[in-house]
Amino acid sequence: MIQLKGIEKSYRRGVENVHALAGIDLEIAAGELIAVVGPSGAGKTTLLHILGCLDLPTKGQMHFDGARVDTMGESQLVALRREKIGFIFQQFYLIPGLSVFDNIALPLLFSRKKADPAVIRELAATVGLGDRINHSPSQLSGGEMQRVAVARALVNNPEIILADEPTGNLDSENSEKIFGLLRSLHERGITVVMITHNDELAQRAQRVIRLRDGKICSRQ
Ligand code: ADP
Ligand code: MG
């Protein structure tokens, strides 16, 4: 479903070039549950941004469902992200002034689709917050906020969910709940790629991709 071939990504920092990714070959099949691990600065977030078409590689080829991505223009990338990809971040990124309902529905605004209240309620129920749709984020715990973010990532019916340290700000009980949710999405056929520092969770993925210095140093 996603193929990366010889992917490199460098950033200019002053006069220096930082090689965040230094030659990545990777295939991700539809429906996989993958953990990405590695030390800070290894290139994990950069890789996730490229998988999510948020950023283009400096070098190399990328295909998403057979379509060549690395030569796409911004409007094609926007459409691809909107139709196929859901993102979850360590910091949740909920909008404080909006209710749980409106936070979940937010991506629909960008797709110019109307929110079907029944669908939003069902998503809230899927993440165990069916009775909290009128709450504001400040009335929720961190674990609950991340569950709202999971529901929001699902609102456009994505093929793939990309999560950057989704349990990084959570205690072990809430980490377990978020991982359980991601695993249930995988069981429904959604592809899940999760960056994590939690080895115990990583080992429970189908495949662990370990990055170091912008390269894949092991894939089990
Ligand atoms: P990780 O998520 O594994 O900690 P990142 O992908 O965030 O690693 O970063 C990999 C390397 O690329 C790091 O050296 C980082 O400082 C650098 N980097 C990441 N994003 C940028 C950017 N926008 N501009 C400059 N350097 C960046
Ligand atoms: Mg990172």
Automatic annotation (TrEMBL):
GO molecular function: ATP binding; ATP hydrolysis activity; transmembrane transporter activity
Every ABC transporter domain range: 2-220
Keyword flag ATP-binding: yes
A Gene Ontology cellular-component term: membrane protein complex
Alphabetic keyword roster: ATP-binding, Nucleotide-binding, Transport
Pfam families in UniProt: ABC_tran
Record flagged with keyword ATP-binding: yes
Protein family: Belongs to the ABC transporter superfamily. Macrolide exporter (TC 3.A.1.122) family.
Protein name: ABC transporter related protein
Phylogenetic placement of the source organism: Bacteria, Pseudomonadati, Chrysiogenota, Chrysiogenia, Chrysiogenales
